[in-house]
Amino acid sequence: MLAILINSLSLLAILLIPACLVALAIHLFEFSIQLQLASRWGWRSVMITGWLGTPIHELSHVIMCFLFRHRIDEVRFFDPDPASGRLGFVKHSYRQGNWFEELGNGFIGIAPFLGGSIALLSLSLMFYPESTLELFRIQASTERESWQLITQIPFEAFVQFLSSLFTIENLQTVRMWLFLYLCLCVAAHMAPSMSDYVGALRGLILITELSLIVTILAMTFTREPLALAKSVVIAVMPFMILGGLSLALCCALYIAVAIFCRIIPAPPPQKRRRC
Question: Which SS3 state, helix, strand or coil, does residue 69 take?
């Protein structure tokens, strides 16, 4: 029983810890980028990426609300508000004490990360279908006989995906730069906001408990726990790789914005006229 519990926790750690760290890092990069842009060139500068990323962010919330039977009270897919800094919002309500709807709070909270990953996958299939489909055909080249070796599978696939994508030929095309810009628009707004995290806390606890129960049951009835873990990791690997791509793009944008803010002088303040 102890071995089953250890295997279950190991698999959950492989799946959940990287996703949580990527979501947190993207959130921090997003906050810093928007702060630098707004302080330097005005609040509306964040719309460079928000016009696409925000509707996808809010639509992800809406879809999860429908799936978990939450009542949608008000939706603004793209409604920039300079006073609050909010680009859009979804207001929803649910019946307290209903475990299914409370579980939905967790999925609704992390919905932008899920929806953003699906949007990135769609863009990848649209612009570079062969490189993307290869992610679904990847099998481990050697037998993975330990948890440490299993964790190396997504990293190896990530390196392979980037090497097939960022070639000299691709970087010389408009298609690549358009693809990167659209991916950046999605990635810069796919992290849940702080209000999303607060509202999702109870649901996330339920999701974690349910995931642990399902994993323990799966590990109990399988004869090869490492083979099961490897299959699960390969199944979710495309989304893990796209999450890594999102983080890399946000990091690159953060560096670019920081450099521009230091090199390019700030515009002079506008004079106000009295009427």
Answer: coil
Is pLDDT at 42 greater than 70 in this prediction? Answer: yes
What one-letter code names the amino acid at 232? V
Q: Is residue 270 part of a domain?
A: no
129-140 tens-digit pLDDT: 988 887 777 655
80: DSSP letter: -
101-116 pLDDT, tens digit per residue, is 888 998 998 899 889 9
Non-local (6+) Cβ contacts of 194 within 8 A are none
Q: Number of helices (H) and strands (E) in the chain: give both, helices first.
A: 10, 2
Is residue 222 packed enough to be buried (19+ CB in 10 Å), middle (13-18) or exposed (0-12)?
middle
- In a domain? residue 77: yes
Determine, yes or no, domain membership for 219: yes
Domain membership of residue 97 as a residue range? 2-263
Q: Where are the beta strands (DSSP E) in 27-122?
A: 71-76, 89-93
Residue 240 belongs to some domain of the structure: yes
Say what the pLDDT of residue 59 is: 95
Residue 220 has pLDDT above 70, yes or no: yes
What is the domain count for the chain?
Answer: 1
Q: With both helix axes pointing from N to C terminus, report the angle between 147-165 and 2-41 in degrees, rounded to the nearest 10.
A: 30
Q: Which of 232, 230, 239, 229 is nearest to 135 (CA)?
A: 239
- pLDDT of the residue at 274: 47
